[in-house]
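Q: Structure for this?
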Amino acid sequence: MKKFVGRVVAPGEVRHVEALVSHGGLNTLASFQGALQFGDKKVKCGDQSNPDLYGKEMAGKALCIPQTIGSTTGGLVLYCACSMRRQPSCMLFSKPIDSLAGAGVILADVWLDGGAQMPVIDSLGDEFLETVKTGDKITVESDGTVIIE
Amino acid sequence: MFLTDEQQSILKGSKGATHAKVMESLIRYGELFGAEKLVPITSKYNHLVTSFGLKMIGPIYDLMNKLIEAGAFSQQRFSCDPRPVDKNVPANFLQKLIFNKFMYSKQDFYEEQLNKLGLMDKDAFTCTCYMDEVGNKPNKGEILSWSESSAVVYANSVLGARCNRNSGIIDIMGSVAGYVPYFGLLTDEGRKATWIIELKTTKKPDAQLLGSAIGMKVMEDVPYVKGLDKYLGAELNDDACAYLKDFGAATASNGAVGLYHIENLTPEAKELGESLICENAQVYVIDDAELQRVYDSYPVVWKNKDAKPKLCFMGCPHMSLAQLKDWTVKLEKGLKENGNKKVLIPTVFTSAPKVIEKFKETEYAKRLEATGVILSYICPLMYMNNPLCKKMNVITSSNKLRTYTTARYYSDDEILAQLVGGSK
């Protein structure tokens, strides 16, 4: 078991959730677009440039990434994913959150009934991403503590 | 965050619940990045990335409706990214069905929302709103609430305006409130370079390839580029601006660059020189071999890598008037030299509606038409997002299009050769 502590961007807790890890940035538009467009409830990642995530189910996972990249539609895509309940179980950033993901999370938290319904923790550090592996069980506590079980 | 009396009052609901939520969104967004205050937007116009009536973004239409119903209109008029569909661009029956019935079925509805919220005019759809013909060109030092990565990096770097890499929707929240949080690229400190790029190539590098190399290396940091002025000169003329438009789009899409400085050329580099460089800046040397390495690293995601291209897209970001003229001349010359009359691959050049209108007033328009090239205002990215178009073998010299789609990248010279009948 290993613990990391980051900053709480959106509050919440999850327990024993499976990790899905990307060592490259998450291209939000490329990853979510197909799933949202065609009603894929499992939200398979559509980003062919991301070998860690491509074709893998993102819904219900602890998505562990350095940051998001790509189109400035990224924030609104994340907002839509939260609104349609197609978001990951939680998002865990090793770096400080970027302006696109940050905007998406804040918009969801402010404008949607019930908020983003997805804890988001950032600034977990490079070691977090070096340690966590796809398939590990993750627990997120309300104070920003992330436990790799 | 420090708030003025007016901002506090709006946050508490003096203008209604929707205005309060707009203010809360901006404050919480700013606080994530350490902003200590909100500052007034000073540009004449805004620019929004969300131009497409994509069926999947229903929650965005609901949010826009909330703004409209509450009278929370943009205090600035705004331009928008390009429209997604144009009947002049080649598409088969099934592709059209998917475009019109499944993907962009909400286009008319969404454009009506944009009109109510403050769209500049019916043709204000382009990613290059800063072109003279379009008229959304901010001045140096002005504070913006723009989104669209290629437009933001151009406004910051070439025009010297100040704007963060905002997401869609936060962009319009800024212009509804009239304020943006003060952090990052709005601050003097945030505009300092943490990378020095030393260009040591033996010839002028392709803008899109150089931008890609720098974007992938520095990601969201600010690079200070030395040695490029040798090829671009010291004045921001049409050629230099077109080069920097394409270069910047590649830095912003292959990485997440929001601002770059070009020594002796871009406004802040001219004014402040090396004082813009942070003390411990890292150094990235780019020579011919490094550019070749980057080019060779691009994955080709076509099923058959030797397949004949079915379509060529040029103009992501949209082409300038000078680029349209220049390409007309290059195509005519190449076709003549190779004994051909029309381009050998169906080809679409994309540009802003108002640039196209201006181009059509010139003698070049008929000449380009004679080469077989189709001129369109669409966004090639939105065309390629159609699952059936993804399977097509599309070529482009846009590194942004390559990054987000299955399109295959070639340099401008290689594209030209394929279009006119020379070897690749």
